[in-house]
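Input record (Table S2, row 221):
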Amino acid sequence: MITVPASPYPYTLDPARTALVVIDMQRDFIEPGGFGEALGNDVSRLAAIVPTVAALLALFRAKGWPVVHTREAHRPDLSDLPPAKRARGSAPVRIGDGGPMGRLLVRGEPGNAILPAVAPIPGEIEIDKPGKGAFYATGLQEILQARGITHLVFAGVTTEVCVQTTMREANDRGYEGLLVEDATESYFPHFKAGAIEMITAQGGIVGWSTPFAALKQAVGG
Ligand code: TIU
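Output record (tricarbonodiimidic diamide complex):
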């Protein structure tokens, strides 16, 4: 077992049962012209975490520990897009509409791809998810169970939306979750801070958080 200094108290992981889950590091959320910008967000702050997410991936790859990548992605026929999700908000372009990087949030479109610097490599698990949480309608739980995974380290975007939702889903399913604080980001800095506080408050009601450097030092990367 390895103990990582973390908030609200040290996080102990079993190296044989730990996977990294990198949430939605897609052009659609991080680059101009994608879904994130269509929602009215300034997407520039999200790109800043790419080097840290890449370093986190390198650490897990060096250890030979499993890596899961998720994409928020709908089928081209939009059959997995609830009308309420398409209708939400007042954006002039919506999920499934064409944009400069192809159809927004649709599988296989250029904008739906994960950024090259943090893209999956052969052997890593890729999950296309129609919701905010990575466990909803994806089979992720069965995939993790088959590998005996009990501990999940989280990174990606956005902290308070897809990352926090997935951490809550994981928590209810009995996983021990650790969020890497500088490998996650929000369009709203105060939401990132608030999400981390919500996750770690009340004795780690949802899970733990730690900076990447503390995780790296603890696991000996
Ligand atoms: N809008 C926003 O902050 N996030 C999303 O819509 N999806 C994810 O967080 N991936």
